[in-house]
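User: If you would, consider this record:
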Amino acid sequence: MLGSAFKKLLPDAIYISSKDYDLRDRNQVNEMYATHKPEYVIHLASRVGGVLANMQNLGDFYFDNIMMNTNVLDAAKEHKVKKVLSCLSTCVYPDKVSYPLTENQIHNGPPHSSNYTYAYTKRMIDIQSRAYREQFGCNFISMSPNNLFGEHDNFDLEDSHVIPAMIRKIYEAKQAGEDVTMWGDGAPLREFTYIDDICSISLFLLEVYDDPEPINVGTTGERTIKEIAEKIASYFNFEGNIVWDIYKPKGQHRKPSDNSKLLELGWKEENYTDFDKALQKTCKWFEDNYPNIRGVK
């Protein structure tokens, strides 16, 4: 998803996917750096998923992500890359924490149990980046977005995130003339940032940010899962019922973030895409491209 969005901003950059190299394999990662000789790297690779995928694949999520992160950063050091920007997530924050989430709280306690192995691997990007900066002088920085969404997302119902999962469920329920069932009670609160904004922020940080501490980059403003489901239903003119299965896990209740450090650097609140417009664009893209979409076909 993010790679597709970046191509609109940087069409001439080098894009690497899992089809090109297995980033869990140190030899393949070294080959990648030796072949392409990058000066700047934006490290977005990860194995991700929603609540169910995280809970069912704790060990796999840990191994795949810790190996990718370790190899990408260590090889960047060996090949003398000028700067690396890595992507964390607000899931790195402790489950019991003071709100809003500020960058100095990342390591103050364990993350939420529903995705703790993924969260710890993301925390280790921060640790590895700091260690390499101190020992080897590497300019490795990291950003922490909140929940991302947009075109080219993963719409697989087993391992997608909440917005793409709801878009697909509601769209297909409408086509079938059926009600739709969602997990939990719809009460959890989340912040969401449109993918195009994260791409612009990434380039902004490559220019102006050189500090060792991670920086929150997502837009603030919480919305309930129920509210978003209703917005999607309205866009698709869905006339069925939205049924909430309270016996299914719903994840962490809330995790509001503080993006004041980003704003102090010069990023403007008005630079973020309006949530409703971004959600409509994502729904339209899904409708126009269904079923030839990642996770569907």
Notes: The chain has ten helices and ten strands.
